[in-house]
Amino acid sequence: MVNQINGEYAAKDARMIAYLEVTKKLIKEFKEFKIEQVPRNLNTEADALENLGLNINPEEFGTIPLVHVLSPAIEKESTISVYEVQTNLTEEVDNSWTTPLKEYLLGKTKPTRKVAAQAFAQKASKYCLISNVLFKKSAAGPFLRCLKEKEVEQVEVPTARYGLMTEERNQVELIHNLDTVEELRKDARMRMAAYQQEVARSFNKNVRTKVFKLGYWVLRKVYENTREVNAGKLAPNWEGPYEITKVVGNGAYKLRNAEGKEVQRSWNATHLKLYHF
Q1: 7-11, 72-76, 227-231: lowest mean pLDDT where?
Q2: What is the CA radius of gyration of the chain?
Q3: Which GO terms describe its molecular function (predicted)?
Q4: What's the CATH class of domain 217-274?
Q5: Which of 177, 155, 158, 156 is nearest to 166 (CA)?
């Protein structure tokens, strides 16, 4: 800005042009002036003054009005809030969540612990006060007004299911459901039968039937009751061979061992497999 005022550089940016116009208006109020650019490393006094302003306790100033500039000078409608701090002022106790933030921004209270002070300062940096109303800064543009618990009112928007339903219509729907209950049960039974048929077809598709003829030699699966005593885990899972002497039906066969002794009961084909000499 210093170089633009001295005429060394031209103000091309819209924001820079706006600041330059404000500066020219202020210059007219001085009989003579001199403006110089101070390097950052030599600007310690201005930095100290800025930090001092942040740490001011308004209660120490009595009735001296404090002016808070809440918007840049280049805005058309600059918002300035004047807070007159009065001592011995009785106020209603407000336990809202906005109260600590407002008091911190006004400089009335500060956390005593250093860690808590840093965390609260970081949180408070996202808020600002405009006409003693707390707003939250938003990246989308407009500030978001912070509401107290008492200012929030629950709003319920009825859906079509409840908004369009009346007592008379509800009775009609109930009677209609009673009239169609038998039809619904019939449809459910039909769907259940179709589902069971589909499951049966899917299961039978993977079933491989075993068919043995008379005179075939087969091995019989060993079970706990047919396993030899103290056979252990290394005992064979199949025993035999056995000769098929009779086809009983439904996959059942009569067997005879190699010594010619008949097996007492019949065995199903699922427990037999073909034996090759």
Answers
A1: 72-76
A2: 47
A3: nucleic acid binding
A4: mainly beta
A5: 158
